[in-house]
Amino acid sequence: YMGRGYRILTVLPESPMSNLGIEPMLDFIILSGEEEMAMGFNSYVGQHENKEVELIFYNIASRLKWKAKVTPRKWKGMGLLGVDLREEDYTTAHSRVLRVLNFFVNSPLQKAGFKSFTDYILGTEHYVFQDIEDFENFIRKHDNDLVKLYVY
Description:
alpha+beta; five-stranded antiparallel sheet; four-stranded antiparallel sheet
């Protein structure tokens, strides 16, 4: 499956991947090798514990691919890489970004400093919005709650 990848939702501090300059929500790990594809990413990482591997990343904002070497290992946090991932088709991920066009004066978006025609809403720390309806439902559900959004 050509578009198979993992969106990086969060990178934990001091984790094996914390020094790679990853942009959460924008960067994906792309599955490229036959071994990765055949066994699945989690199994691949587990099989390479304490062994350096080269991973391919894709950034949906720049639409550029890049490579980095990392050593999956046990550390003080969870997992061998220290990232929270979500399997997703990276080739269509840019279509699940919401562009801020307009908002009301004194609205929560204006008070938060959003800019019309410049800002894009990606999701929350653990959730990627699929479309505008998904975003609206999330906002309704969290009416009067403080929500943290990923924006670029």
